[in-house]
Every structure is written in C-alpha cells, then in structure tokens.
ABC transporter permease
Amino acid sequence: MLVYLRVFKESFSFALNALRNNKLRTFLSLLGVTVGIFSIIAVLAAVDSLDRNIKENLSGLDKNTMYLTKYSFGPTDVPRWKRDNFPQTEYDDYEFVRRNVPDIEESAYVIFGGRETIRYQAETLTNIEITPISHGIYTIDNLKIEKGRFYSELESDTGSAVIVLGYELAENLFDKSNPIGKVVRVYGRKLTVIGVLEKYGSGLGDSPDVKGFVPANFVRQFRNGGVEGLPGAVVIKPKEGVDIGAFESVLKQKYRAYRGLKADEDDNFFVNKLSGLVSFVDAIIGTLNLVGWVISGFSLLVGGFGIANIMFVSVKERTNLIGIQKSLGAKNRFILFQFLFEAIILAIVGGLIGLLFVWSSAMIMNKVVGDDFEFVLSFWNMFIGFALSSGIGLLSGIIPAISASKLDPVEAIRTGM
C-alpha cells in the first residue's frame, strides 16, 4: 500500500511540475474546459431556476381550477380554422354554469381585455394590464388585500365603477399617498380605487403587482361581446375532494346541452385545467434541458479534445524523459499516473473555475434582477459540473497516458535525441 501511495505522490508531483513549466499551454487547456463546464452548468442552473420560479408562482393556485373558453391553453388537435369559428364564451354562459353545474366552490367571468392607459391627475401610465373579472376571482386566486378591500358580489353584478390596484401599480400612480378613495381614469372613464393588493413579486406572465382589477360587468356596459367582441372565459374552482374527472364530464355534458350540440358533434369549447398547464410547463422545461445539454455538450467536447491534444503533445515532447525514467526503473504505472494526473488536474481546475464563474454570474444576476427572478445554483448542479470535469479529464488523458506508459525505454531515448 505504501508503495502505491508513493507512486501516486511522485506522479502527482511530476504532473504539477509539467503544468507549471508550460503555463501558456496549461492556460489554454483550462480555458477550453472552463468554457464547456460554464456553458453546461449555466444552462442547467438557468432552466432549473426558471422551473422553480414558475412552480412557485403556480403553487398558490388550485391546480384543479378550470378555464371554460373557446381557446386552448396548450397544444390541441383541433385545427385552427375550426377553433376560429368557435363561439365566444359570454356572461350568459357564466350565469348558466354557476347556476346549473354542481360541486362548484367558486366561479368567475373574465374578459381578456388587453392593455389600457391609466391616469391620475398629471400621472399617466400606459400599457397596463387591466383585468375585467367578476368577484369570484378573489376566492379562486386567493388574492390578499394590503389596503382597502376587493369589490363585492353586488358591485360585481351591477358593474360598479371601482378598481383594485396591484401593489406596484398603486405605488407608481400615487407614490406614498393613500390611494383609497382616489379617482383614476381607465377606458376614458372614472373609477374609484377601493383596494390595493399585497406585494406578490414576479409571476408567470405579468405579476399581480402591475395589474388592475375591475368588475367585468362594468366593461360590458361599453365594450361589445359576442363573435366580434372581447373574448371571455368562465373560471371555475371545483369543491375540495370532488372527483375532477367526473366533475369535468358533468360540466361538458351540461354545457354541450346548453349550446345545443348533438351527440355526433364535437365540442366547440375547451376546458383548460391549471394541472394541464403545469404538465405543459414540465414538458417545455424538459425540452430546454435537452437542448441545453446538446448545445453545451459541444463546448465540453471541444475542451476535452483540447486536453487530449495537449497531452499527446506533452507525451511527444517528453519522450526522451520517459525513456530515461523507465531505464532508471520507473514502472509503467508511474508513467501512466503521471500523465493521467496531469489531464485530470487540468479538467478539475478548469471545471472549478467554470463553476466559480457560474456562481459569480448568479450573484450578479440576482443583484440586477432583484425580486423579479431568483437565479439558483443548486448543489446537484455543482456536483454535476465537478463530476463532468473529472470525467472529461479521465477520458481525455487515458489514451495519451497509456501510450506513454507503453513506450520502450531504448526507443524512447533514441526518438527523443
């Protein structure tokens, strides 16, 4: 055992000396591995961070929440021309669903109204997402109020001219003054601010912090519905413990009957579940991971070829020294370990530098982006980086090391002279 330890120690020392004596070559080899490891770990960490942030944003929502509308939130086999001819989901559909479909805990009607300009005195904010939606969304999305209140069911049904602002939107409009009771102009009409939401931070799509919520029936007073009007959806939250499959079947059956669809006719609507959205997101994240591995793998492959090339050059340059060492009694394993350690040291150090760059980049991004997005470098990703760099060093150095260890001492001395 002591003999092997001594061989390891001396081989390691020879490898370090060789790297120190060829600083430029060592630097170029390190650079190739560093870029490869940086590319792979940066992509993995970015995709993991994206996945984590999306899952956190969806964690507060009930995955069984359904959106009944003419649009599909994910891939569908229904052709585009057919979907375009589906009737809009209107307020009357919402009224039918909430009165006739059993086991609904809460429902709401939303109008996909787009972006508007909001004004308060001299302050004007453009391209703001104003969501016309009925009172039920307060329960469905578990909204939390910082100041004031959310509009009531009566205000929602009668279309009162009131608005609830997101935290950041309220700050931008009113600075530090109390917004409750203030009158703003949206859609060219006056609305009274009755509430401000708590701060949520970044979200999937626009955060609630930069949104405004108004009763859907307020917008219906001056914006047309129907085929040529604003698109809408019925948002449905089933009761807890309900069999979701059975609930969806009953919902579709009753809604088909309401729309007068015959047994042989296809649905002219979609029931989109948030659980399906989560699965769709998982599929996208998996694809991004695969693409990231493929692209970054080429960078790592170049780094590995660089080390292998350097090691073959190193064997060629030190052929004479190898012959002298073997003539003085050096065993094959001593020569093998000497070159193998050199390749592994290059790969590990390059990998560690790559990890350091990823970590530094993550810290900088978190400082710049702030609360909008958290870039996370997990222990698992760091372990992958370390394992990959070690593996690349082993694979890149094994063939040059074996060729060096098998050199005939007499031929090696003669060739090197």
Q: What stands out?
A: The longest strand covers residues 123-132.
